[in-house]
From TrEMBL:
Domain L-asparaginase N-terminal: 112-298
Keyword DNA-binding among record annotations: no
Organism: Triparma strigata
Family according to the record: Belongs to the asparaginase 1 family.
Domain Asparaginase/glutaminase C-terminal: 324-441
Active site: 121 (o-isoaspartyl threonine intermediate)
Keyword vocabulary terms for this entry: Hydrolase
Tagged with keyword Iron: no
Name of the protein in its database record: asparaginase
């Protein structure tokens, strides 16, 4: 464990007001969605260790392939997405507005962090037209941040803020917004040392998990945060969540997508929202936090993902034709049968939230028949658990054995959020066959599952007085 003591001392921070210039497009006035070959391409960028470090001016952003990202609203379609993205992209923030010293060697320059703001409580204030309910206030974040003296400390990074328009409650976000964020990070990848994504807490674990899969070979920190109380309130959790996220987004050692909340940095695809009203709103039930914050910052460096060897690749497509079902004892499951057997649903995957270690009632042969029908239709059935902590162990109990027989795949100790986003990402990749998707569900791609949790029966050593002694060989993540 490494102790990092962060001193905060005064200086000046450049804040560029970046409220999007274009107005909100009304999706009903747009032409119907059409798949363009452009949106099917992935983008590659140099990894961090290959970025320019001399005073040589940075190369202008290449015109291809990154510009194969959607350039106008009419092209802004992501297959499998629930709705069309109304957002304008963020940049790229190219050389014309970069200060001269930006590409000096890293020891002689301030870190640069791009803040991508999607909305959420952090940006909200009571809206009198909605009975005082909280709603995002466009442009306010940029204003509030420019008045925060804490951000002007010497050791804080230079910050550029981009607010998407419209700002959203995170319940209104989905795969098209995730794709926009991923593409914007890739477009600005060379110009910033790290990224902070501000988003609402309700679906943050999904967005952050999705981004962890979309950004392959990520070599810089992408830190998600938000708050339970708006930044505009006198007492709030927004201020410190924002400050700490900016600090972690400036760390050279973080090469992954994280969620910073309250006093912990969590791996994004391990995080889940656990509380509606407490400030400790997120947890990472199956993995230690990447860092804990008290009066010092304690980093669990052994858990950090290593610097990637390849170039950043952005996979912005998500195939969302999947369904999650949480079992409830004795409930009618004919609706699942209908969804699986009806060819119109075109379902790709069925995520089951089972009891305990991956169990279902043994007296429900009709349900097993549904799973067999799913297999015939090449629908991948994935087993997760309703428990917050621990791993699925298919076949550990006799009642779960039938699932294994029916070709159900274990999600091991992945969160439901990570399981769904991983499936959508893998099915969104055109280079993978259904067999490869199935195989990769059992492989840790971005540290989303604990490798030791993959043995379907625990590593028993011996039993004494009815107690099982388990050999703990350390957990790989
Ligand atoms: N705390 C929050 O941010 C909740 C809000 N409803 C959102 O997810 O946008």
């Amino acid at each position: 464990m490494q102790r990092l003591v962060s001193r905060l001392s005064p200086s000046v921070v450049r804040l560029n007001r970046a409220v999007p210039s274009t107005s909100i497009l009304n999706s009903s006035s747009l032409p119907p969605p059409a798949l363009t070959t452009d949106t099917k391409r992935n983008f590659t960028w140099m990894p961090k260790n290959a970025r320019p470090v001399s005073s040589t001016p940075p190369l202008p952003p290449p015109t291809s392939p990154p510009t194969s990202s959607p350039t106008s609203e009419s092209e802004d379609v992501y297959p499998g997405a629930i709705s069309r993205c109304q957002w304008e992209g963020a940049g790229p923030f190219d050389s014309y507005n970069l200060p001269q010293h930006t590409y000096l060697p890293s020891h002689s320059r301030k870190k640069r962090v791009l803040v991508l703001c999607t909305g959420g409580t952090l940006t909200m204030a009571p809206d009198s037209t909605k009975d005082g309910g909280l709603a995002p206030v466009e442009g306010a974040l940029t204003e509030w941040m420019s008045n925060m003296r804490e951000l002007q400390q010497d050791e804080m990074p230079e910050i550029k803020v981009h607010e998407y328009s419209p700002l959203l409650d995170s319940s209104d976000m989905g795969p098209c917004n995730w794709a926009r964020i991923a593409v914007d990070i890739s477009k600005n990848y060379l110009y910033f040392d790290g990224f902070v994504v501000l988003t609402g807490t309700d679906t943050m674990a999904y967005t952050a998990s999705a981004l962890s899969f979309m950004l392959e070979n990520l070599g810089k920190p992408v830190i998600f945060t938000g708050s339970q109380i708006p930044l505009c309130e006198a007492y709030n959790d927004a201020r410190r969540n924002l400050i700490m996220s900016l600090i972690f987004a400036s760390r050279d050692t973080v090469n992954e997508v994280g969620v910073f909340f309250h006093d912990r940095l969590l791996r994004a695809n391990r995080s889940t929202k656990i509380n509606t009203d407490r400030l400790l709103a997120f947890d990472s039930p199956n993995m230690e936090p990447l860092a804990n914050i008290g009066i010092t910052i304690d980093e669990n460096e052994h858990l950090f993902l290593p610097q990637p060897k390849g170039r950043l690749r952005v996979h912005s497509e998500m195939d969302t034709r999947l369904m999650t079902v949480r079992l409830v004892p004795g409930f009618d499951d004919s609706v699942i049968k209908y969804a699986v057997e009806n060819p119109d649903t075109n379902m790709k995957a069925l995520v089951l939230q089972l009891y305990g270690a991956g169990n279902m009632p043994s007296n429900k042969s009709s349900f097993i028949q549904v799973l067999e029908a799913a297999r015939e239709r090449e629908i991948l059935v994935v087993a997760t658990t309703q428990c917050l902590t621990g791993s699925v162990m298919l076949g550990h109990y006799a009642v779960g054995h039938a699932l294994k027989e029916a070709g159900v795949v274990s999600a091991y100790d992945m969160t439901v959020e990570a399981t769904c986003c991983k499936l959508a990402y893998l099915f969104g990749r055109e280079d993978l066959t259904p067999y490869e998707v199935k195989r990769l569900m059992g492989v840790s791609l971005r540290g989303e599952m604990t490798m030791d949790s993959q043995s379907s029966s625990p590593p028993f050593t011996e039993k004494i007085a009815g107690m099982t002694f388990t050999q703990n060989r350390g957990r790989k993540v």
